[in-house]
Amino acid sequence: MARNTALYFRLVEGKNLPAKDVSGTSDPYCIVKVDNEVVARTATVWKDLNPFWGEEFTLHLPLGFHTLSFYVMDEDTIGHDDVIGKISLTKEYIASQPRGIDSWINLSHVNPDEEVQGEIYLELHIMQDQHKCNLHCHVLEARDLAPRDISGTSDPFVRIFCNNQTLETSVIKRTRFPRWNEVLEFDLRGIEELDPADQVISIEVWDWDMVGKNDFLGRVCFPLEPLHRNPAVTGWFRLLPFGNTDEENGGKLGSLRVKVSLSEERILPSVYYQNLIQLLVESVQSPDQGDCSLLALLEDMCSAESRQEVAVKLVKIFLGQGMAVAFLDRLNMREVNRTGDPNTLFRSNSLASKSMEQYMKIVGMPYLHEVLRPIITRIFEEKKYVELDPCKIDLNRSRRISFKGSVSEQQIRESSVESLRGYLSDIIDAILGSVEQCPPGMRLCFKQLHKRVEERFPGAASQDVKYAAISGFLFLRFFAPAILTPKLFHLREHHADPRTARTLLLLAKVVQSIGNLGQQLGHGKEQWMSPLHPFIQQSVGRLRDFLDKLIDMESDVECGQTSRTLFHPSVTIKEGFLHKRKADAVNLVTRFTFKKRYFCLTGQSLSYSKSPDWQVRSSIPVHRICAVERVDDNAFQQPNMMQIITQDGDTQGGHIMYIQCKNVNDLNQWLSALRKVSLCNQNLLSTYHPGAYRNSHWTCCLQSERTVRGCSRTHLAVTLGDWSDPLDPDAEAQVLYRHLLLVKDMLRNKYLDGADDVATCKGETRGFTGKGLEGTITYSAARRLLSVIEDLQRAHQVFERREREETSNHSNCI
């Protein structure tokens, strides 16, 4: 059994931020930390006290977390960036909001005493006889302490208070991973005379400073009474702050609008999900399920808010079974058969529409990148001023168009039309010439959709319906959204600036019109788009030819075989330029120790060379990767560094490759991608060294032996969620079960209560109608689904009871 925590957060916008620059504005950006580790950084919004970011992330944290923090910073080109304020949300608070958090929250001051992190390893036990009662506190080590010195390290020591006595350990210089191995002893005689609140042992960690006051690094407290009942307390303990002393600032530092939600799943062993998966498989395989009863039942019970997540999980479950295309065909057939007006086909956010949309994102993302990335990159680089709407034309920006003096609105419109036509020609040519690049699964899915629509709406009058059904998905739900917001489709690292964003919006509008087969031309309020209408009409004719070629493939291709090629090992997962540290660069100055190399990650290997086209390449097999982790900034005095630890056979210590990424987001994306492909490797490490081995010792824990066990825990499965997440049938089935559990009572009351027992025994179908559900619902399908839900519910209760017993036993020991 495993646990999986998915933390979703979206930084929407800020307002009323204080001015940090002499110009009376700020250049704000946000840093997101989970338990004091930076997991994301937004783009900087220049000269704005009310910035909009709109950036969202999903973080998978198998071991859970304690605190999510948002820091608002002001970027400075000279010197250090200024801290404007922060928001901290505890896991308990986030979990107490079942519908998530979506609100404005005031920023608070950043108190250094609150910025603590790390853990300390302790052994506590009381030695008592007729003559004495002593407490032995064995302080062994600490890890991941906060850096308090300019070097990026600290000089930590431990100060312990107990029974009006104070003792301290020695100071360990320049490390965040100190090892003391010291025993401090306290006389407990007379402690019972103290107030109960003072009958504790308080263990504080401090950073020693030669000049000025020492810096607080965190503390942990234990009541003494339980120690009298138990022989010893041993383990790693999280360091905590003194307590929140922030006062309400009344919004003087401004506020952030954030969206946060938390999903915690207890993943049971695979055997417990087999009945649910088998029931889903049978709903697609069985020829007598033409009404698609179980899938219709799922759609009817899912709320509009949960439908997208349910669609994602269903698509991934059927991908894992090699039946995604068959599953989508069932959904699409039902959607087509219950649609009376062809103009409304797939226009709602039905389970079929959402499932098709998610399938394209999962299967077709490499295809989309190959088609759109070159032209999107060029649009971002050229930053042309483009505008067709007379109400939005700004003549002051015309200087970028002409240096011969002012220009008229008409000249700006003509220049804009010319620029847009140039971009659109490249976009449409790339899409319409991409038949062979389109994944076979998508093509087969579109072919079956074409067939279902043609059967439902025959005749010349409905000739375009079969084309519109496909182009509606491919253009309106796939290509156009990617053009409008390239960052959300991983085409760009940052959001577009306002000028580029306007160009992308106009281009997306045209692509949507082409996807609609030009049916809206001449209608609506945006008649200023008319100069592009001839291009749209010309492209629609080419689009029909493209769609005919797209679905022209062998019909006997197995859906399962097509789907199983999705995550082929040779598919490129991530690529780009990084700086690799030379293995023999021990004594070289920094600028000579790193070499720029082009890295390419697939499911089989991580390779690198001087350029993308360079013939000589070095390669690391993915199965040899043991850990992928960050590197402390002070190890090489360089930020945004990671290390890839590989091992051959039983070789002790392994080989470490150090790589520098261009920014923290790039670092997190590479960490995530590498961890995903190596998640199931056999020789994964549980610990690592966040520093480097230099001058005969590790810079992190100062140990001299190169092969000594790592001083910090690895983050094996901490990943960013995106389209490239590996298939995990158990995790997908668990999330689906969670949604079904919420509607269990509705399932029973709506489709089972009052049913005829005789008809049930004979397995006959009973007609039940419900809101949003057409056709008949088989009693047996609802009954089997309810049985599966209840079986899983009982299994969870058993595991929960075991966990409570284990936790209780552990607490008794403490």
Automatic annotation (TrEMBL):
The keyword Protease does not apply. It comes from the Eukaryota. Residues 306-516 form the Ras-GAP domain. InterPro entries: C2_dom, C2_domain_sf, PH-like_dom_sf, PH_domain, Ras_GTPase, RASAL_RasGAP, RasGAP_CS, RasGAP_dom. GO terms for biological process: cellular response to calcium ion; intracellular signal transduction; negative regulation of Ras protein signal transduction. Residues 1-105, 116-237 form the C2 domain. Keywords: GTPase activation, Metal-binding, Repeat, Zinc, Zinc-finger. The keyword Ion transport does not apply. Pfam families: BTK, C2, PH, RasGAP. GO terms for molecular function: GTPase activator activity; zinc ion binding. Residues 571-679 form the PH domain. This is RasGAP-activating-like protein 1.
